[in-house]
Amino acid sequence: MLRILSENKIRGITNILNGLENQIIGYGQGLFLLEDGNFTEIDENIIWYAIKYKDFLLYQFENGANINYFNLKNKSKGLIEAQNTFLFKNILFDNQLLISARPKNLILRENLELQVSEIIGRIPKIIYKQYSLKVSSFIELIDNSNNSSVWKTEFSDLLKNINAKTYGPTQLIGNNFFFFLYDSSRKSLDKSTYCLNIDNGELIWKNNKFGGWLCNFNSKLYTIVDNVLQVLDSNNFKLETINLINCLSQLDVKFDGWKKTFFVSNTKFIVEKGYLYFTEERGDRFGIINLKEKKLISFAKLEIENNEETFIGKIMIDNKRMYITDSNNTLHVFKKPEVTFSNKQLY
To answer: Rounded to whole angstroms, how far apart are CA atoms 107 and 125?
Structure first.
C-alpha cells in the first residue's frame, strides 16, 4: 500500500466528517484537520478529546472542563462554559448532543446552547426511540418521558455467573440488541453472545460458540479469534466460519528454525464490502484480505520511530484511504488498493 503522508503528535482520530472521504480529525499534542491531503493545525494545546457535532469541532484540553469549539464554516473559535462536563462521554440524541456532566447531564443544541437534560444518571449506551438503554452489570431500558424502567435484565442471570461482564462493543440492529458476556474472574470458561428484543427485553437468541469483539457491517456481525473469522447474519442467525490461517501464514516470521505465527488483532479490525482490514496483535503490520477468495491482497509494515514499543493504536477507513495511528502518536494515511474502491458488495 502507498503511504500518502504521516503526522506525529496525534494520539487519537475521530469519525470521518460528514461522511466525506477527505476530512478527518486528529488530536493529541494539538488539534488537526486533515483535508484534501493536508494537515491544518486548529489548536496547539494538548487535547484530551475531540468530536464533530453539526458544523463544529468540539474539543477539551487535557486539564479543562469547559468545551472549546471550532466552526468549520467560518473558521472561528469559541468557548462554551460548562464546568464538570465530560465530552468523551456523549451520545447523539434527537439531533442534539447529550453530554455527561455533574450534577446533571446536559443537552447541547444546534446553536451551541447548553440546557439541563431530563435524562439522569449515567449516559445511556444507546438512545432508542423515546428510550435510553443503560448498560452496567445489567441492561435496563428507561422511558425518558417519565424516567421509569421499562425492563431490566441482570447479566448474572443471563450467563448464570455472578462475574458476568460485557466485552467489546454492543450492537443494535433494528430492534435486536447484541452483546457478548464472559466470566470476568476467569475462573470458568462461561461465555456467550446474546440477542435481546430491545422493546421488551425478551431473549431471542444466544450462542456460546460465537462471540468476542463484535464488528457490524450491513446487518452482519463479525468476530476474530486465532485467525478465524466468524460471521453472524442478524436476519436469520445463520453462522459462518472463515478460516484465514493459511491465508495469513505468509506473514509468519521464520528464523533459526523458529517460527513466530502472525495473529490478527481481535479488536482492531474492520469488515466492509467483503474485505477484512486487519492489524497485527501486539505488532506493527496490517493488511487487507478478500474474504470471498480468502486471499491476502495487500499488507505493509508501519514505520514507527519509537523502537522501544511498537504497536498499532487505531484503524479507520473511508472509500479510498486507510488511517492508522501508532504507539509513537503518529497518524499514517495510506491509499487503499483500487480493487476495494467499488461500492459493490463482494461477499
So the answer is: 16
CB atoms near residue 44 (< 10 Å): 10
CA distance 45 to 61: 7
CATH architecture of 234-347: Beta Barrel (2.40)
Q: Which residue has the cell 417519565?
A: 146
Structural domain boundaries in the chain? 1-123, 234-347
In degrees, to the nearest 5, what angle opens at C-alpha 332 toward C-alphas 274 and 259? 70
- According to the CATH classification, is domain 1-123 in 2.130.10.10? yes
Which pLDDT does position 19 carry in this prediction? 46
Give ∠ CA 230-232-234 in degrees, rounded to 5. 165
Whether residue 278 contacts residue 264, with contact meaning beta carbons closer than 8 Å, is answered with: yes
Find the distance separating the first CA and the last CA of the chain, reported in whole Å: 22
Burial of 267-300, coded b for 16+ CB within 10 Å and e otherwise, reads: ebbbbbebbbbbbbbebbbbbbbbbeebebebbb
Of the candidates 195, 203, 198, 194, the residue with the CA atom closest to the CA atom of residue 150: 198
278 CA to centre of own chain:
14
Reported as a single tens digit per residue, the pLDDT across 16-64 is: 544 445 567 888 888 888 876 677 889 988 888 888 888 888 999 877 7
